[in-house]
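Q: Could you write out the predicted structure for this multi-component system? I'm mainly interested in how the pieces pack against one another.
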Amino acid sequence: MSEPILVEAEALRDFTARAFVTAGVPADEARIAADVLVTADLRGVDSHGVARLHHYLARIEKGLVAPTAPLTIVRERPTALTIDAGNGLGLVTAYRAMELALERAARYGSAAVAVRHSNHFGIAGYFAMMALPHDMIGLAMCNASPTVVPFGGREPMLGTNPIAWAIPCGEEPAVVADMATSGVSYGKLEVARRTGAAIPVGWALGADGAPTTDPAEAMQIRSILPLGGLVEGTGYKGYALATVVEALCHALSGAAMSREIVAVQGRGEQPSNIGHFFAAYAVDAFRPLAEFKAEMDRLVRTLRSCPPQDGAGPVRIPGEKEHRTTLQRSRDGIPLHPTVVATLQRIAAERGIEPAW
Amino acid sequence: MSEPILVEAEALRDFTARAFVTAGVPADEARIAADVLVTADLRGVDSHGVARLHHYLARIEKGLVAPTAPLTIVRERPTALTIDAGNGLGLVTAYRAMELALERAARYGSAAVAVRHSNHFGIAGYFAMMALPHDMIGLAMCNASPTVVPFGGREPMLGTNPIAWAIPCGEEPAVVADMATSGVSYGKLEVARRTGAAIPVGWALGADGAPTTDPAEAMQIRSILPLGGLVEGTGYKGYALATVVEALCHALSGAAMSREIVAVQGRGEQPSNIGHFFAAYAVDAFRPLAEFKAEMDRLVRTLRSCPPQDGAGPVRIPGEKEHRTTLQRSRDGIPLHPTVVATLQRIAAERGIEPAW
């Protein structure tokens, strides 16, 4: 295995933004898109970071994503809005939609925004976490190209359909639950294939409909199992959550059904029409902020005090690992796999933009 | 094994309501409480139905639940309310709180309500499904006494902390995702113990911290595994969802933390101070209702068309099994286990209320 290359976060953000600008993304929105990708890398979600930059650029330049399209509010009530993103860059349209949800929640207490005609938006957690500086709770969902089988089924009908919640704390880091409703994300399969690792039984089905440990086969078959896997009494739950995400991101917004979405990875030659759903809850509308934060800190510390199972490390809070990774990578740099660096260097050479590392 | 006894749903509802009245619950609220329990039995969630009636009655009569307490709005914005349930019967306070969420969502498009000082509310799905006749999407959550270990931990710190979503369709039955964020509910362990069945590996830890198949041991240790179980990369997701439910039902509402909640099963001798969280989304505020319902029908039919895994039955929609069970049990009667019938007969004899079956 070749060693990862450490890249400073701000240099990577700057390079990524300049790359988006060369594809025709306006400068301020390129900065947003770059921040979403680099935040994924900072949090250790390597599958959703700059490793995918070339996919986003390729789709823009094939005319499959319209980075200067305006957002249109197609239906509006005080705390329910539907946005047509006009096939804009998902990383940016999701940001704008969550801004609207936060603004309405600040005025009314809570609010929700559905988005149609959008594209892949990176990590769901980024948009949920936009609520945190406003002392709000954030919720973000997205549908995606079909890679996940229903419980009991053997053909991909659902996306990995992530759900992310972000909840502010006081002295403790925020609780951030950012998860595919499949057992694992498609990106985790990509990472396993890139690093040559086998995947555990229970992640995906193989061509024969039985569990496989080969990430390449799982990626080809596109038959990731829902959260809960094949286990009696639990596998239908991940499927049920994925179906809820589908209903909110597809049927409520007017976006495509996951089953009909073309993959972001550049294989598809038509617009994705991906859908999103966002909600925001202003903490102070429900409870005095100081009380809430003190209770969240107490909850976090209570959970952390749980004795670990034999052989397990200390119990961690949802998002704690990613928070620690962010602190460490902000300080030491982001370790990029050599194949990712090679891709970025090719982007740099093709576009005449000098990487700053 | 002795045969179940078939009881007509309306007769069971009527008997249950009369039993609540003998405990001091006002007649209209007794009818609500009875409907919540009998709906669980109709849906096949036998663990959460009239089998628990005696627990609810016992807690009222010990003075641990105050069935005539008024609900108080302690904090209010147009689409964010916090309710103090005054230690009222959870089955009823949840109903009233969801009514408020629906009313606000009808006015503003979406709304959320947090509830403190409440008690066990039965199946979460009942309250989410209250949105359906209003052509709204419903969300319901609840925390609970500690029975679930954090991912990697070995002491119960969280409740089974259910999440339920209900989403209306057109011609198809509604999509209803009603699930404990643990792999299984505590009630499923109760059913297994009652019927003498072993539980699958991955449901719970035993006294030695390793997986157990003995429901009685799991109930004693109270160490149910989160959704995703012990599987690498997935078990932390159920834990993360349970923590989100905890944050919304405990920290946001001002109710107790699951870790500090006394079990409903009558062992505890103090009020529970359970918390709930409800939200409602008016479909028509986001998208014309007919369009939405047509797309939901299409989604349901698409999922159902998925070829099944070898040996599995047809792919079913979340809530479909419960919907079919409801139709069948409404027609043929609810099959009650003889031990449940014996409990109901004891209640009838003690209270001088004649069961109508």
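A: Regarding packing and overall arrangement: Residues 90-108 of chain B form the longest helix (19 residues).
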